[in-house]
Every structure is written in structure tokens, then in C-alpha cells.
Amino acid sequence: MSTFLQVVFRSLETGSIYALAALGIIIVFRTSFITNFSQGVVAMFNTFVVTYLFRTMGLPLWLAIFGGIISAILVGFLIDIVIIRHTKKVSPVAKQIITLGMIMIVLGITPLLFGVDPLRLPRLIEDGNLTLLGADISYNGLFNIVFGIAVMVTLFYILQKTKVGLAVRATASNEHTAKLMGVPTKTVTLGAWAVAGVLGVLSGVMAAPMTSVTLNLMDEIQINALIAVVLGGFQTFYGPVLGAYIIGIGRNLLLYYGSSVWGGQILYILILVFLVFRPHGLIGKKIIKKV
Amino acid sequence: MHIDHQPNMDGLVLKIENLSIAFGGLKAVDDLSFEIKENEVFGLIGPNGAGKTTAFNCITQFYRPDSGNIYFKDRKGKVQNLLEHGVHEIIELGLVRTFQNVELIRELSIIDNVLIGAHTDFNATIFDQAFRLPRAVKEERRMRQKAYEILETLGIEDRADQLVGGQPYGILKKVEFARSLISDPKLIILDEPAAGLNDTETMELSKRIRRISKELNCAILLVEHDMRLVMDVCDRICAISFGKFLAKGTPKEIKENKDVQVAYLGIEVTENAEE
Amino acid sequence: MNTIKKIIKNPYAHFILLGVLLLFVPVLAETGIFKVSYITTLGGAFIFAIAALGLNILLGFSGLISLGTSGFMGLAAYVSAYVTMDMNLPFEVAFLLAVLIPTLIGVLVGLVSLKIEGIYLAIATLAVSEVLRKTFEEFDFFTNGFSGKNAQYPTLLGTFELDRTGMYYLIVVVLVLIMILTYNLVNGRLGRALNAMRGSEAASQAMGVNLLNHRLIAFALATVYASVAGVLYVHFIKYSYPSIWSLKLSLDFLAMIIIGGLRSIYGTLIGALIVFAVPDIFLKQLPYFNQLSYVLNGVLIILVIIFYPHGLVYARYDIKRLFNKLFKKGA
Question: Where does the sequence pass through the membrane (chain C) (predicted)?
Fold first, then answer.
């Protein structure tokens, strides 16, 4: 029982990381209609900014993270203003290739600015363990879980209950109509890229202490987040979050109780089989074309 | 449910028996029966939402009816129950349809779009095609010639190599018509062929429908809103309302039928009056 | 005069002429006009062009998107390396097995594509590719894990030992052959059926196109092309690491066909050159900017997509117009 709980706690932590990344992807998708393959790489860049502020500039970690958030917002604005706004005529598939171009730019710039050596970013709460029902969890892990959930609950509250959220949802359901109704869709899109950036850097800062800060920091997270979005469905904001936690938990359980070598692959195959039966994810409806 | 019986199809090309389909409890087509004779122009009419389109989506197997039988005399004269065939097998039997909102491929030339209608008439394998073996080349040339001749009869052969994208609506309708003709059909279902056409084009269309059914020895099922066209070209008409059979007969009989006047013309008149 | 005109207009003549021109690259490299390293760069770009052509059949013609190309290409590379190095079987046998095995999996994905569509299909194929990539990492005795698997230049028919230049010639021949086969396929019955399937599922079915068959054919073709590319890759570059066969590479393939032009055979080649050869051959030669070649390539990709959303093949009309303008001014 205690090992099981231990695995679940670990999973909730990775689940939170995937969920933040997945939420970043779906927010951009719903407002700009782009599957953002650069979500992870941009998050990696901003995590490098945090690491730079912390290690080279010697700022305290929380202040460095704050700096990373500012950087994420600015980079988000930059992407929208310089690139995304000029892609109105571009087909949906080609838009995804624009994010590939962005990946190349970020992958090229990052080593020039921050060097090629892997860097270490410590945990926000350095040490300390909590024992819950016989299972150990670090304070930092617990903080990540709670913080991740808090960020998402806040975002969902804003989306569902506030005027800003209404504008976002209106843009997501029909950009053209929203514009006619006076929703400032340009601002909504701008904000979406900034929020996605912030969610990205948060997931990056959570993931970084588990490995080291390198160009590949977010590769695995990006892929799991994309699969989480498909598992949850593209039609809601909360579906992908749900998908992310399922992947986080399912993956660790399979790795621990199934096979430490094949667990990840088995999970993906299970998801594929699930998609065959529910082609639009957990929460999603098929749109039928009439002839 | 049904005992498999061979219906008497003497002189008939299509026989529909007790066709029913419901969507979420709503009966779109309810116990509908009618038959189409060989080489006749048959009209299926009814007010908006009467189930015309649903009925023929059942015939062409886009929908699977809940009950009923649909018999069709194929190109070889054999009687087939269409329910036993997949949607992509229907055209091979000799039954082809057009679409209300013209479903053509914009990025292909007009003649290539027509050739899609001959898809099932090709025998060359992928291997033959990839290496352009003589039999593939010959077949392609023969079909292209046939497509060109059909375009000629419709008077649009000069546009054969132009792309479909950007062509005027009247031309698109003709291309779709040509695409259905190339398959040598026994029965063509035209889904609102006059929609979006102007008066001259509609008149031209009615002449064309008559000519085609005579020259090609095929029957035509016309699902149409434009009453003038229906009354003008059809040999016989079946009127339906709310998915149910209403009346059957010559255009004259339908015009004079009380039920039809109430259900169809009547409703239309009151609707117009309200406006 | 007429026969010359006919030859000039013949599409096959174009493909063969292109092939002959490309065969001269090693000769030019020997005379010192080209750097010798360009042989590797161009050969690599042509290999990727082959896989991208397959993806173009899938996405451009059939409208089915896949992010699994790199996984299938990698699988073929490992199979071929394993069969030649560990089983000591001839290159030809390796080639057949390396095409057959991924294609079987590709056909399975084709089955899935009947149910899953659009972006869902893209990411489902990404999951397949990831399963393969992780298998490359873990399946040590077959792939040699993270250390990478080595392969050698092949010996054709047991007698012709190829070196790098020989391998380059083989790549050009295969590329031209595949371009011709693709041209034949997409301009015939199959191409029309795939186009119809993309344009309108309903209409294509009504015209007798069996959706299941054609989706399977499209996926099988795309996987065969990717597998051929994978075999050529592993015997040209001579090694294979799991990290090569990543999402990034699949996106690169997508970039090639979008940049070059959907449904364009030459466009795919142009796209492959831009994504793979331009950084090495041009951007790295620029003074001050050689460090930024990757960044510049990203910028280039974004600019091309914004200014030529239908692909660079359409730039030829602009070039023609510009040419006419200059010419008329001169006259």
C-alpha cells in the first residue's frame, strides 16, 4: 500500500508538470488554432533564463523564477506580435510548421546565450520529507502538486467565471463571431501566448531539478503533453489536464508494476487503442458532416 | 426479419419496399414504398424536411435503414438487394448520384474530376500504374477519351484541362453530371440539380435530363424543389410528407391531388402569405 | 524540331535530366569546385526527400497527416543494419526485410486512420513513432541502445562494393526512380482516388472509392518510402542513434512538403534542400553568421510559409513575372 501511494505521489508530481504543459498547448490551440510544437522548447528557453538569473546573477531562486515568468510573458508577446499575427492566410497544417521554425530559432539561440554545458537548477524547497500513510513525499514534491493544481484551478476560475474568461471562450468557439461581438480577439490571442509561456516555464522549473537544464529538458514533457491533449480531447480546456494526470499516473504505475523497460510504450499503445474507440478523446464529440 | 424473397422486377429498375429510418426517435422516413421503371424520369418531391434526402441516402447506402428492402436491377440485369452492399459498391451495380452542394475536387482538372466517376471501371493494378505498363497506359487513354466525349455532349470540352476551382456554378453542376454519366449508370439520382441555377440554365437542364435518359437508356430519379422542373421533365412523381408516402402519379395527377395540395403547395402558399 | 520539343516537354526527360545533373556533384567535388562534404550533405537531403515524398502522398494527396515518419524510417535503418551486420546477410535481403517490416506496422496505422482523423491522427502517429524510438533505446541486442548501431557501405549483388561516392550515386538513382514512380501513381487512377478521398469522403465513396483500401494504400506507400530512405540513410551515414528518430525529424519532413508545396514532386525536393542542405551549404558559409545557421534556417522556414503559404513551387510564377519585367524593360 505504501509503495503504491509513493508511486501515486510521484505520478501526481509528473502529472502536474504534464498538465501545465498540456494546458499551455490547448490554450494556444483554442485561441490561435495552432498545435504548438514549440511549447516545450520555449519553456526550456525560459527555464534557462531562470537558471541564468539564479546561478550567474546570483538572484534568490524565487526571484529568478519571477524573472523567468516575466521572460515567458515577453517571449509569448514577441511570438504573437512578430509571427503569429502574420499567419492569417496560412493553412492549419502550415501553421504547425511555423512552430517548427520557432523550435529551430530557439534551439539555435539558447546555446549562444547560455552555453552548451548542462546546468543544475535546485528544488525550490531544498529538503525535507513528509510521511503520509507510510509513503514518503518531499516537501518540494508536495508543493509542486499543490501549486500545479492551484494554478490550474485559478485559470479555470478565470475562464469560467470572469469577463476575461468569457472573451477567451468566445474566441475559442468562434473567432469570427467573437470579433463581430466586440471581443478583442487580438488581445485574447496575445494573452494566450503569454499564459502558455508562463505555464511552460512553471513546468520547466518543476522538471529541471529531476534532471539538468539542457536543450532536451522538455522533449519528453512536450510529447506527453501532446498525447495528453489528444487523450483528453481538443474541445475543452479541462480534458487535456485530465489526460495529463492519467498519463502521469498510468505511466508510473506501468513502469513500477508492469515493466520498467516497456511501461512507457505499453501506455502509449493503450492510449492508441482507446483512441480507436473514442476518436475524439475522453471529452469530445464527433462533428458529423451532412451530405 | 425478412424472408428473402425475389420481387418481381419486370420493367423496373428500382423497387423500394417499406423503407423506414429514425434518428433519435424521430421517424425521418416512415414505411415508404415506390418503384422506378426502366428509362423513366421519376420525381421525388415533398416540402422541406419531408425526408427526400434521407430516403435517397438510404438507397445509396450512406445511411443504413432500420427496416425495409431496396431492390435494384444491376447493369447485367441481375436483381440486387442494395442493403447487402457497401456504399462504395453501389456505383459498380449501375446506380450513381450527384450531390446537392457539388462535391468536386478543386485541385484537379475538369476531366480528371470526370474520370473519378470511372474509378471502378479500371482494371490496371497499382504496379501497372506505377510503371506505366502498356495496359495501364491504354486503359487511361481510353477512359480519357470517353470522359472527353461526355464533356463534348455537355458542351464544356474546351474547359477539359482547366482546374475545377474557380469555375462558375453552372459549369460545376455539369462536371458533376458528367462524372455520373461516365460510369454507364442504369439509374442516376440527381439531388436538387436545379438549385443555384438561373432560368436559362434550368431550362437547359430539363432538356438535358430528357435527352440523357433517352440516349443512354437509363432511369433518372430527381429529388427536387423546383416544381416547374419536376412537372416539366418527370414521367411520374412520388410525393412524400413527414417521411410518409402521400401520392403517386403523373405530374398532372399530382398537381390535382388534394393531399399534395394541402401538404406541399398549401403549406407553401400559407408560408408565403405569412411572409 | 518537333521531336526535340516533345523531349523538352516530356516529364520523364525532366526527371532523368535532373538525375544526370545530380550525378555530376562528386565530379565537381573532385575538381575542387564543390567541397567534398557536400556529397554527404546533398546525399542526406535526397534521402530525406524520398521519405518526404511518401509523406506528400499521404498528406498532400490523401489528406492524412502523420508524425510517424521518423519512427518508421528509423525502424528500417535498424533492421537493415542488424540484418547486414549481425546476420551477415546480403544487402538486398536486408533491404527487402527493412521495407517489409515497417510497412506492416504502417498498414496497421492505416487501419487506425479510418477512425482517427486530423490532429488526433497526427498525434496518434506521433505516439507510434515514440513507441518505436523508445524501443530503439531499450532493445539493446537489436539496436545497441544509446551507443548507436553501426552499418557499412553496402555491396550490391555481392560484387559491387560501394564507397561514399558510389552510395551517393545509388541515392540519386533511387531518388529519380521514386520521383518517376510517384509521378506515375499520382497522375493516374490512384492519384485521382486519393484526391477524391481528401476532397470529399462522401463523393469519393459514391464514385466507388473504397476508403479502407485507399487509406491502407496511402499509409503503405508512405511507409515504403520512409523505409527505403531509412535503409539508404544507415548505409550512407553508417550509424543510427535513437535520438535521430525524434519528433523533430518528423516535423522536418512535414516542413519539407509544406515549404516545397503540397502535391508537388519537385517542391518536396526543394523543401528537403532548404531544411537539410541550406544550413550546411550556404548559411554556415556566411561571415559572422555561421553560428546562427540553425536560427536563420528557422527564420527562413517561417518567412517562406508566411509569403508562400502554398509552397515555394509557386515562387516560379513570381520569378517569371520578375524576369518578364526586367526583360521588357531591357527591350
Answer: 39-59, 64-83, 95-114, 167-186, 216-237, 249-274, 294-315
